[in-house]
Amino acid sequence: MQSEQNELIKRRLEELEEIKKLGVNPYPHNFKVTASSKEIISSFQDPENDEERENQKNNLIRIAGRIIAIRRMGKATFCHIKDCEGRIQIYLRKDDIGELSYKILKLLDIGDIIGAEGFVFRTKTGEISVHATEMKLLTKSIYPLPVVKEEITESGEKIVHDAFADVELRYRQRYIDLIVNENVRNTFRIRMEVIRSIKNTLERHKFIEVETPTLQTIYGGANARPFVTKHNALGIELFLRISNELFLKRLIVGGFDRVYEFVKDFRNEGIDRTHNPEFTQVEWYQAYADYNDSMDLFEEIIENAAMDSLGTTVINYQGTEINLKRPWKRLKMTEVIKSKTGLDVVNMPLSEILDYMKKKNIDIDARLTKSKGLVIALLFEEVCEGDLIQPVFITDHPIETTPLCKPLRDYSLEQIENMKTDPEHVIFVERFEPYINKWELGNSYTELNDPLLQKCLLEEQEERGRGGEEEIHPMDEDFLRAIEVGMPPTTGVGLGVDRLVMLLTNSYSIRDVIFFPLMKPLDK
RNA sequence: GGGGAUGUAGCUCAGGGGUAGAGCAAUUGCCUUUUAAGCAAUGGGUCGGAGGUUCGAUUCCUCCCAUCCUCACCA
């Protein structure tokens, strides 16, 4: 794979041969590790007298890691190695590790992995280090790493020189990015802590973790184009899930009252700094509760995630300070529109809303203009979304925005029937979207469990291809049957994990919080 | 998909119609508490790819590829 012409690689292959000639296996099978860099540094006691220093010397530890910096000084060598928890300096003297090991050491490079046994000491210049009494090569690297140098200034500031910064290479070769860029590792550490925190909060609330299919014969639960694949033996078309919502509701029907699932969803859409074709969502469903309960739990989950991963609810995202502390504002979509524009969209005729939008130069798809509800939702997106920096729940969307959500409890069933036939009346549903930094961070409903209304709304969606879009959502008859069997009053929530992690790690692009974001293949 | 920018050594970058530049890394030598180690010497390039203009292209032109930004798309 790597170019054989490359001088650096050729050189390393020669070193590899020399090591073998010296009778040393460059790829041994194991090394017993007794300490990590972090443990060593945090537990080091500076010996004050000779006796303690002797004790220290008798207390041998074993550590392993990748060489990330090496300074040779003739018959002594300093190197920094990096292990899972950090970095530490190793001091190796020919007299201590022996002739053969020192010969091997001379054949090592940045990127090689070594193990060392030795005692902890503090160098003249004050750095806690391991004075090696033994060194073992654990893995010889033949592909050169970028050489990144760190300088600690007198004021204690860290300056990184020649950082590995090419974003394309960083994403394509994330393993190198992780070795070389400390902050990248930290971003993903936070990601894992956020996920653990969300699970912990849900578990505390008695939710259980479940698994639903990634490969589906019918896709649904969201409005997005799917990835299509095929099963060879069965000879059928399959879709990668765009959402797991319809399956989690089936589990509620089946009697699991509180379920959650972390999933990759796959959406065949454009890619930008907040969209990756596969992304992580956690969805949870709770029986005998409504969207007000979901708002309570949502803000608790986010607050806990921030506290558990960062120890604070105050974050800075790209220069904007955001406070995630509970409670968050809860605002009706139409109220936000009113306070922003002065328009009482509920009670004004559709034609006047359209006039207003024309005046404001808001482009509107001709196919949407027949639906007052969709026009209101669009107006909100165009005019109001940009202001939603601090956490806020936007509630009570027009029914046309989703077929899976229960109408507000204020309506009688009769009212709903009557209003449906009147284009000037909009039915609103018990839905909320949490917004932070102008982003939708999730989506939640008081779930629709009226099987007749559910059927009606899904059929409508199928008919109009949902708001005039090209793709037609297939009807999921089995899901309808599940609702007919009877789903208890339920609320469900989806939370976009990647975007949450972006906020908490101050990451500009979603690609910075996904280990291996999708990249186009390179031509040979 | 539209528009803009970028692509030069392993890494970070300069340059520019006539033999390709720097720092770090590499190689050789000296150096047993150094730390962006140091000193001296040396090697390293299909200048993203394919065409075109030209006596001559890495540089100018066209197309292609990849990446980033932006718009469109996207609950």
Number of helices: 17
* Highest CATH level, the class of the largest domain: Alpha Beta
Radius of gyration: 30 Å
Gross morphology = elongated
Average residue pLDDT: 92
Number of domains: 2
Task: Give a written overview of the molecule.
By secondary structure, this protein is an alpha+beta fold. It has 17 helices and 21 strands. The chain folds into 2 domains: 139 residues, Beta Barrel (OB fold (Dihydrolipoamide Acetyltransferase, E2P)); 329 residues, BirA Bifunctional Protein, domain 2. Strands 8, 12, 13, 16, 17, 18, 19, 20 and 21 form a 9-stranded mixed sheet that branches. Strand 6 and strand 7 form a beta hairpin. The longest helix has 23 residues. The chain is elongated. It starts with 6 loop residues before the first helix and ends in a 19-residue tail after the last helix. It binds one RNA strand of 75 nucleotides through helix 1, strand 1, strand 2, strand 3 and helix 4.
